[in-house]
């Protein structure tokens, strides 16, 4: 009988937070295993004792314990249960383990308001790291029996739990089937990051547009579900990944609908304009300043010329330099702790606001253009999308420096072509009504 | 697929490296003249450019002049001599002297349109003074913006309906059109005002053949559909302001002689009035005065065979094309045009007016 | 059949890209007055050809022109598919060269010609390489982005119009029918409709929608010619290379931040032209691929682009280009008229065969 738990002991022996406690309940000897770091042992054992007292025979006891948890036949299962933070017990006579749901230590934060997606009106819960809490949040948002939750354990050395959520009848069968197939076939690969998940699903990671929409908000995720998309929730990742993402995700948020219709329309228009400004403004500046100044009105042309008087570089270099500074500021303010963050804002403000212009390094119109770009860039929904937009503007900057306004139109042509080609599991990034009923 | 995207980007990068930066000059390395003056000295052209010069605090203006055999040659000469490239795409006003206007500027206008260096929207004017003096005065007088001459023609700034608005493409059109001539504004240095308008030059096939005065220019503008709103007409019994005008034509060819009956509906308001003047009197007087003015002007331009009122346009469908080609010489001098001014007094301000 | 708007929209855009540059000049050259008559004849023949073509295609549901001609036999494939190939190739070369020249004349006077040609070809090839479905959905995006600004400029270019230039309305001279410029103008009339034959296995469309698109295009044939005519008059407009561009150049809008709205208008139509180039590259490469199936489709696109670029480089000047235009216009006419007729003939033949085999 020792053999049964000896192996278990061997597997975890080196860990100091591993415990093995033998206990006599009446005449029966029970051996408990677990990890201190994951469970509150004393209160767990108290609970068990309350149930177990006055049990006469061993048979009865075993069945009672099983009712508290589940019976495990294999050694490996026991390992996994211990790592999950459950209490594993074995009796001296039986050849199997029983895992008992232990009282966990509180290692997770509570459900809080979202940190990255601010909401003005609408539900304020956001996902946390714990999978079951996240699932619970989803269940609360979407009260329907059609919500299907499929779990997968992915990974070789360490397993990660991934759940796939979809609404029956709404999500396309083909989509769900091909995703499940991908997940089943690649159980062995590791899953830590978004890129891992993309590789798992057979999506190329070399795209300029996020294939997933990332959201912290259960409300957004559940609304996406009702529109026939699928949602991945991964253990230890505090957001939901909505697949597939679509162009409209950039400017349409479900929370907009908490405003009156005209306001919704206005907000959405603002975001669309924002995207155009963010993408086009620096390119347009270059085109108008260095290639096609004849397009400007004379009054405007003169004041731009005046503001550029004494600037030593060509417009392209000027814009690239300032964009670099700007991107560095953004990156720095993400990286820095909150307490030092304001310093960056201040220093950045000094560089951009006054010093660069006073030193005649850049024209003050450029500062206005870039500030507008940055502001407009932030109107996009979702940080991932805003990074894509940040990247796109460089295409315009380079093309405009060569071809002027023609370059800007060429850039639009390229980007439209690119966007229209993007498909995830054969669902196009830009859904067009007119396309329905195509022969595929 | 991914590979292809990468390929395209590599190609774009190569393209970028290959071409470098050719002749794209930044805006502060270009000079953008707003007024172009052309005069003729003996056989040579002399070109004046009025350039607003952005400097640290405000915009100053300077005049550059150069002479040579052709305008483009002179421009390139100026370009070489100046520190920046001359960019004519912002020219707003072109001023030529009377000598050029009388000799004809067909070549200049076609050159402008062909090279597309000078916008076809640029306004055209003839200066009665010597251009040397004119531009010297401009440089002296011009305020910070450097666009006095421009504002003078700008519809939302200083333009009035007594100034003909003629753009380069209008002139180009009149060079080829069978039935459509234009008038160009005549400028002169003023005493108290910087620029004084002395009327319009009547152009026939690219040459100035006659002049009309500002009041007649008003009629010209009315005929061409420009609004005449705000113009003040003075009579011995009253002064009125034109509020609105509309125009109707009836044209027919009778026995090879074009007949035109034009009715002009005017809406006016009374500003000043002599005692004991009735509405009817003002109406009669005003239409008589305008009719006389029209008849004088028409006799003038008819004699010079210049159809600045575009009367030929009205006969386009009544004369066969071959005949239309002789419009200016054969038909136009024989046009019998009758003007009928229908005046309506819309209001008399806040004072009453005698009704009969 | 499902409602599918992409094909009609692309059809519309292709023609918009072709109409505004060469077409007005060719028509104005071809006749002295009453320009609506030649335009009307052209538009009518456009409709007739289109209807014949659609009728012919409808006998072969779900088949592209390539497979139809191949099934019909070697002779047909040689007589009609090969000319089609050369037609698309010549059109590609000529339009890339011509439009690069136009771009340089109008707004990039400092840029070398090869560089503009490379840009036009590269980005069109990029879109072509993404496949037919992407081309069509991209077309919808362009329509959304650019059509408003085109309409805006069109409305404003009415500013300088003198309606008397419409007169005289009727003229009984029909020499335009034999004028070489009139044949050249057929590039805009017939250049777009042949593409529909290559759409089919990938995308479906309703004939009615295509005809509707053609109906929407029809006014633009008139507008593009009549705006310069009404602004300048025939006598003046006939002296211009690109009358429409000059006419929009004369538009003066005081309240806009930009001085030259022409640039935006022309660029919008250049974008549509790039769509045309895309389709031309796509079809050329498709036919090439059909004859040489061993190379990958994307490589046949690359081959097409490189060949086009080389040919373009070898056209030294505009008058040479005009020369090529002249002789290619006859070739174009052959292709425009024989392809739909042959298709109809083949269609009727298969139908008869089908009926016989039923008996």
Structure description:
The complex is a heterotrimer of chains A (440), B (356) and C (359). In chain A, helix 9 runs parallel beside helix 14, helix 11 packs antiparallel against helix 12 and helix 11 crosses helix 13. Helix content of chain A is 49%, strand content 14%. Chain A is α+β, with helices and mostly antiparallel strands and 440 residues long. Chain A is elongated and about 100 Å long. In chain A, the strands form 3 sheets. Chain A has a 5-stranded antiparallel sheet with strand order 1-2-4-5-3, with helices on both faces. A 5-stranded antiparallel sheet of chain A has the order 6-7-9-10-8, with helices on both faces. The C terminus of chain A is likely disordered. Chain A contains 15 helices and 12 strands. Chain B has 356 residues and is α/β, with parallel strands linked by helices. In chain B, the strands form 3 sheets. Chain B has an 8-stranded mixed sheet. A 4-stranded mixed sheet of chain B has the order 11-12-13-14, with helices on one face. A two-stranded parallel ribbon of chain B has the order 1-5. Chain B is globular, with a radius of gyration of 25 Å. The N and C termini of chain B lie far apart (89 Å). The mean pLDDT of chain B is 79. Chain C is mainly alpha-helical. In chain C, 74% of the residues lie in helices and 0% in strands. Chain C contains 15 helices and no strands. Chain C is globular. Chain C starts with 5 loop residues before the first helix and ends with a helix. The model of chain C has no long low-confidence stretch (mean pLDDT 85). Chains A and C meet through helix 15 of A and helix 6, helix 7 and helix 13 of C.
């Amino acid at each position: 009988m020792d053999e049964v738990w000896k192996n278990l002991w061997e597997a975890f022996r080196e860990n100091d937070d591993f415990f093995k406690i033998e206990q006599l309940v009446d005449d029966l000897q029970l051996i408990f295993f677990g990890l201190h770091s994951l469970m509150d042992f004393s209160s767990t054992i108290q609970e068990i004792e309350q149930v177990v007292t006055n049990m006469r025979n061993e048979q009865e006891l075993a069945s009672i314990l099983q009712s508290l948890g589940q019976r495990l036949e294999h050694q490996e299962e026991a390992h996994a249960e211990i790592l999950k933070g459950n209490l594993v017990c074995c009796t001296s006579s039986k050849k199997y383990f029983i895992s008992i749901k232990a009282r966990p230590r509180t290692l997770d934060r509570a459900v809080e308001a979202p940190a990255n997606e601010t909401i003005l009106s609408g539900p304020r819960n956001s996902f946390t790291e714990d999978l079951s809490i996240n699932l619970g949040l989803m269940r609360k948002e979407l009260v329907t029996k059609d919500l299907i939750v499929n779990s997968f354990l992915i990974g070789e050395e360490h397993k990660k739990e991934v759940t796939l959520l979809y609404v029956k009848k709404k999500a396309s069968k083909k989509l769900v089937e091909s995703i499940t197939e991908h997940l089943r076939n690649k159980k062995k690969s590791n899953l830590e990051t978004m890129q891992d998940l993309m590789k798992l699903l057979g999506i190329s990671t070399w795209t300029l547009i996020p294939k997933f929409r990332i959201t912290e908000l259960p409300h957004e995720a559940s609304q996406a579900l009702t529109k026939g998309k699928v949602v991945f929730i991964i253990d230890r990742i505090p957001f939901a990944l909505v697949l597939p993402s679509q162009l409209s995700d950039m400017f349409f948020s479900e929370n907009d609908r908490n405003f009156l219709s005209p306001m919704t329309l206005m907000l959405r228009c603002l975001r669309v304009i924002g995207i155009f400004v963010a993408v086009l403004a620096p390119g347009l500046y270059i085109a108008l300043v260095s290639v096609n100044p004849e397009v400007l009105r004379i009054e405007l042309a003169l004041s731009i010329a005046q503001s550029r008087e004494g600037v030593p570089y060509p417009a392209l270099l000027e814009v690239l330099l300032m964009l670099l500074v700007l991107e560095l500021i953004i990156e720095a303010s993400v990286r820095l702790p909150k307490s030092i963050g304001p310093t960056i804002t201040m220093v950045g403000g000094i560089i951009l606001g006054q010093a660069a212009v006073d030193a005649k390094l850049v024209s003050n119109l450029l500062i206005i253009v870039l500030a507008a770009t940055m502001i407009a860039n932030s109107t996009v929904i979702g940080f991932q999308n805003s990074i894509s937009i940040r990247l796109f503007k460089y295409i315009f900057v380079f093309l405009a420096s060569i071809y002027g306004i023609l370059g800007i139109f060429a850039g639009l042509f390229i980007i439209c072509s690119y966007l229209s080609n993007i498909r995830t599991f054969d669902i196009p990034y830009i859904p067009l009504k007119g396309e329905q009923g195509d022969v595929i | 697929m991914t590979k292809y995207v990468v390929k395209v980007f590599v190609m774009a990068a190569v393209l970028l490296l290959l071409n470098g930066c050719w002749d794209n000059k930044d805006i502060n390395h270009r000079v953008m003249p707003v007024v172009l003056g052309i005069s003729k000295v003996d056989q040579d052209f002399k070109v004046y450019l009025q350039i607003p010069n952005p400097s640290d605090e405000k915009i100053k203006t300077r005049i550059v002049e150069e002479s040579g055999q052709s305008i483009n040659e002179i421009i390139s000469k100026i370009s070489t001599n100046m520190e920046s490239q001359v960019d004519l795409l912002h020219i707003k006003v072109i001023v030529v002297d009377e000598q050029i206007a009388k000799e004809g500027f067909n070549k200049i206008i076609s050159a402008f349109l062909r090279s597309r260096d000078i916008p076809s929207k640029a306004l055209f004017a003839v200066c009665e003074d010597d251009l040397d003096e004119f531009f010297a005065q401009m440089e002296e007088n011009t305020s910070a913006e450097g666009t006095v001459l421009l504002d003078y023609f700008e519809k939302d700034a200083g333009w009035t309906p007594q100034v003909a608005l003629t753009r380069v493409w209008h002139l180009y059109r009149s060079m080829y059109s069978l039935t459509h001539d234009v008038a160009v504004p005549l400028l002169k240095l003023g005493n108290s005002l910087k620029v004084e308008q002395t009327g319009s030059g009547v152009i026939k096939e690219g040459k100035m053949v006659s002049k009309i005065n500002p009041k007649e220019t008003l009629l010209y503008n009315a005929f061409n559909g420009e609004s005449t709103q705000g113009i003040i007409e003075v009579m011995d019994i009253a002064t009125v302001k034109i509020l609105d005008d509309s125009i109707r034509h009836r044209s027919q060819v009778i026995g090879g002689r074009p007949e035109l009956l034009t009715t002009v509906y005017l809406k006016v308001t009374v500003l000043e009035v002599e005692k004991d003047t009735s509405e009817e009197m003002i109406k009669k007087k005003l239409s008589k005065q305008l009719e006389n003015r029209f008849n004088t002007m028409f006799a003038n331009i008819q004699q010079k065979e210049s159809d600045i009122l575009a009367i030929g346009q009205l006969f386009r469908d009544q004369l066969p094309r071959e005949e239309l080609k002789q419009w200016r010489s054969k038909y136009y001098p024989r046009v019998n045009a009758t003007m009928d001014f229908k005046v309506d007094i819309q209001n008399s301000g806040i004072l009453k007016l005698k009704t009969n | 059949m499902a409602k599918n708007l992409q094909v009609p929209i692309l059809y519309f855009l292709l023609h918009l890209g072709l109409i505004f540059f060469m077409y007005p000049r060719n028509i104005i050259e071809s006749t002295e007055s009453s320009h609506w008559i030649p335009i009307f004849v052209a538009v009518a023949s456009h409709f007739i050809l289109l209807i014949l073509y659609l009728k012919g295609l409808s006998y072969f549901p779900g088949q592209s022109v390539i497979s139809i001609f191949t099934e019909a036999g070697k002779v047909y494939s040689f007589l009609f598919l090969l000319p089609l190939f050369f037609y698309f190739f010549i059109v590609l070369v000529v339009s890339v060269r011509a439009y690069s020249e136009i771009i340089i004349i109008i707004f990039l006077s400092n840029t070398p010609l090869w560089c503009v040609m490379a840009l036009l070809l590269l980005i069109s090839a990029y879109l072509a390489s993404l496949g037919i479905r992407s081309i069509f959905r991209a077309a919808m995006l362009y329509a959304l982005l650019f059509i408003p600004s085109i309409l805006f400029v069109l409305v404003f270019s009415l500013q300088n119009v003198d309606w008397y230039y419409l007169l005289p309305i009727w003229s009984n001279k029909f020499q335009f029918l034999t004028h070489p410029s009139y044949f050249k103008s057929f590039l805009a009339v017939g250049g777009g409709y042949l593409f529909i034959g290559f759409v089919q296995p990938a995308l479906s469309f309703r004939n009615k929608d295509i005809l509707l698109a053609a109906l929407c295009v029809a006014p633009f044939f008139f507008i593009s010619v009549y705006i310069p005519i009404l602004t300048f008059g025939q006598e003046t407009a006939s002296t211009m290379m690109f009358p429409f561009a000059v006419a929009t150049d004369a538009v003066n809008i005081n309240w806009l931040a930009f001085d030259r709205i022409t640039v935006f208008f022309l660029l919008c139509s250049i974008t549509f032209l790039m769509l045309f180039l895309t389709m031309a590259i796509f079809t050329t490469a498709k036919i090439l691929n059909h004859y040489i199936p061993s190379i990958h489709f994307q490589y046949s696109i690359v081959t097409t682009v490189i060949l086009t670029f080389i040919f373009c480089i070898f056209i030294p000047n505009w008058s040479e280009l005009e020369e090529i235009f002249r002789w290619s216009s006859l070739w174009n006419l052959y292709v425009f008229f024989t392809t739909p007729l042959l298709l109809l003939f083949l269609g009727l033949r298969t139908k008869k065969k089908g009926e016989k085999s039923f008996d």
